[in-house]
Amino acid sequence: MTIDPKPSKKRPLSDKPIDKNESFRLLVENISSHAIFMVDSSGLVLTWNRGAEDLFGYRAEEIEGKNASLLYPAQEAEDALVQHNIDSAKSELKSETQSLMKRKDGTTVRCENTITPVNLENGSFAFAWVSRELTDVDERRSLQRRANDAERRENVFSALVAGVKDYAIFMLDPNGLIQTWNAGAESINGYEPYEIIGQHFSIFYSTEDKTSGHPRNELETALREGRYEEEGWRVRKDGSKFWASVVITAIYDNGNLLGFAKVTRDLTDKKKADEKEREAARREEIFRLLVAGVADYAIFMLDPNGNIMTWNEGAQRINGYSASEIVGKHFSQFYTEEDRKRGHPQYELAVAEREGKYEEEGWRVRKDGSIFWASVVITAIHESGTLIGFAKITRDLTERRLAEQQREATNQDLKNALEVKSRFLSTISHEVRTPMSGIIGMSELLTIEDLGEENNKIAQSVFQSSQRLLRLLNDLLDAAKMESGKISLEYRQFPIIAVVGDVRQLIYPEASKKGLEVIGETDPLVPETVCGDEFRVRQVLLNLAFNAVKFTNSGTISINCTSKKLEDKTTVIRFSVTDTGIGIAPENRHRVFQPFEQAHDSTSRVYGGTGLGLSISKSLVALMGGEIDFESEQGKGSTFWFEVPFPEGNCSV
Questions:
Q1: 556-565 and 517-519 strand pairing
Q2: Are the C-beta atoms of 39 and 46 separated by less than 8 Å?
Q3: What tens digit of pLDDT does each residue of 258-297 get?
Q4: How many other CB atoms are found less than 10 A from the CB of residue 335?
Q5: Residue 9: which pLDDT band, with cuts at 50, 70 and 90?
Q6: I need a labelling partner for 584 at 20 to 30 A (CA). Which of 16, 253, 363, 509 fits?
């Protein structure tokens, strides 16, 4: 099957939207001389007139909704053709072809098809398709017209190619023998047609290229890939060389190789211009790197051996040498005696050559012998793969270095002061804890004696106050350890469920005094024992539980424990303490885990406490690799929780 596209003058698409009923009216349903029907953008038939039924044999109900490729002899193969014709109609506003079409009874008929796009109301396109059967006379006229057109185009093309003088355009047979020769080929290569036609095209190649089989490889590549392109040196009739851009294209007719089209252009002048441009760009790049007038940076060039080639104003200001004093000297002159002995300047160049760049900060020496702290960048400069030297940029950072040293000294003083404070707090806490333990013990004994109501109240007050003071000492000691980084974890196997139960029991007396109910649940999936620091887990959970009691005047305290397993064989256990207490306002949330802070300034006056407990808890949970946080609503209560990961198995494993 052949397709003969006929370009037509473009006209604008209709702006008037047409619905299906309107399209029926426009296509003149009762016309029988022409098959007139509508298709959508995918080729599905939308309408069908009497002429279409007469020409192709399908009734409307048989064809509407089906693809127009049904009207072609090879339906599946013609799907793409139908879509191509539709796309051409949409882009060119009209598509005209002559094709062999298939009727319902399987017979074929050659038709002239015209497809025109039509706007629909919804903004999409449909396409009006008009088919007319071609008679033998029509076909002979069409064939003759195409033959005449082809001959005319061939003559025009031959004249065009023959007259081109800037390009050598000629044909080779399948073996590479020259078949045609144009004016451009004669101008570029120097041969007249009678001298070159019938010769092998390798005549234009150097002896080295012919020996290596390069011409043969070009044809093989063009044959294999359809096209071969390159730039390289070629030889003229007089033996001179020129830089050629070459394109060789394999030419086929019905699958049979006819030969090769070879197009050559002389780019010798362009190559020279390109080389000059690259040289200019190289000089420009060097100049850009050097930035001769920059005063804040020493920017200069070294040759491949490290000898100074250029010198800018910044280099003179920073190093103290004038250009006449330093150009030609080795750049190691700026280094300390120790650096020179250990070969540090040579090491810098070796790294820059190997990795492209070397950077460091260090001490350098000025002309007057004084030293300065320098930021140094050395960049290797290559041209066509060859090292031509190094660009060296130096900046004087002495003031910044001295400021850093001052900060380092100040930080060390602060570390020393913190260490002294930590030791002081640790010593005081230990010294006070011993007599405090005695006071707690004696006052506890007094509380169980019958001393009379008034004296028992006094004894109870002493006992509670001494316990609060001991907790304060313990908090201060833990805070000091945390600050100095001396706190550590002790891992052993311990019963996690028992710890949760103990905490519930420990807070029960305080909770019952306030009429609070202590409840809680433990997830059955929580392992019986885990490997971790029992004391620190208990400390954090107890702190959260006592806080809940302290800030709750009525209701319940709920202590819960759940677990989940991770893919890395780790069990994460979540402990949560929920109360029905005073809650925390959103604006005070950021203060909760800060040391010596409480949710509200009045809290410590009403409820007591230092604000260290939650800060210590947060640090301990982080030390155990976990996370701590809370949810709260002011006036309704809070839920504080923390999660700690525990490895599976026993501590011994």
A1: parallel
A2: yes
A3: 999 999 999 988 888 888 888 877 776 776 655 655 667 8
A4: 20
A5: very low
A6: 509
